[in-house]
């Protein structure tokens, strides 16, 4: 019947559910052999850990993945034990039925669970008579509606003007770009209106926003100890009287069981990463990475990650991952000729060098044409051509008349208070780097920059590590140390509050030039390179101001060195 329909509609008579993978073309004899080569290539381009992390964010049905769930429940106590042994337990805030978790949203704290991915419909849940009555009886309803309005008011201030699809909407906002006009209407309708006169649908919308607030992440001053206590008092009332019609919406946390609606990572942690602790995800992630390899969990998570959807054109993953995926997709075909035209521009230099080493040294079956914007005399290539303005200006290798043409003059010219976001904004406005920026841009920077704490002796920046962020010092002091080529350690200077450190990493793809260590407890805002470049695309004044500050610092350093030489 389906075949007849296909014929009548003029479509091709092929089964879309068939296995369309060609094993023979690239030289494989089976799915297992292809998978083995794929795993090797993932490691070559540094994609294996990225896929593993994607797997950690997957949600799985225990009935479909019983062995994986069993592995997770086995690893969970082992992870906690090692974190305790290494004094890293403060990097994770565990779920506790008796405590409010500042690193989890209000809604998760209220129900001590997470929405079921199968049945959850948030407005049906919030409008349910039991939910409405419980929130009113505990004094939460009106307060949360007002919290939601205050939050949306700030969202409009921060995100109006950003283009649709901007990454900040997914990462930081409670609304999408398409929803901004309706949100403005809600704010207008509710401004100065008595609570009882606010429309029911507007109340639900504002209530939904409040349910998403996470104190440690959003730092909006709307959640205090009194509110936390109200939520904790509502939690047992919610559990004791929950009707069956609502129970289907929630998967509750169980210290001895698995929560299907929560990501695998949350089930392993049985809690949330502490937003305010420096590098908590990386440090706990390293421990988890070790344990995952011990029991075979790592391979299962990579397999899950490979099955994940990445969106149209890879829209759900970063540019770095898209470039790595594209390279692996090309290499797995075992091509005779591979052309890489600035295809790895988003990768750090070390990863690019590793890929070049593999392609030029270990992959004899493929000829490589590598196009790169860097002025790089890489000895790994058999031949090297330098182009400028469409002309060959330099050539090396694989030529009987190998020569280096002189570069003409014209050619040469062309090569040439704790948790208070308002206080953070005021502090940023006193720093030269941000002083000349629009107030809305400074507030957006403060909102999107994680607030981190480094304890005495901890390292903020390590010499030689890749530079991916700058730090704005809110409080505390540090020191900058340099290890010379002779392996001597030299103190360069002190670091004090209201300083920006590591800012060169925002513009230059180079390793850290020095080590920065806290000499007392420090609180900083972390300005990620990706976030900064996103702001630059939106407002070029950000980049101009940074260039001015760096130029001024370079001038001061030059004068200091000149003065020392004269002495």
From TrEMBL:
SMART domains: cNMP (SM00100)
Record region (Disordered): 393-416
Gene Ontology CC annotations of this record: cytosol
Single Gene Ontology MF annotation: DNA-binding transcription factor activity
Domain (ABC transporter) ranges: 92-414
Domain Cyclic nucleotide-binding: start-end pairs: 433-536
Protein's name in the database: Multidrug transporter
Organism: Thalassospira lucentensis
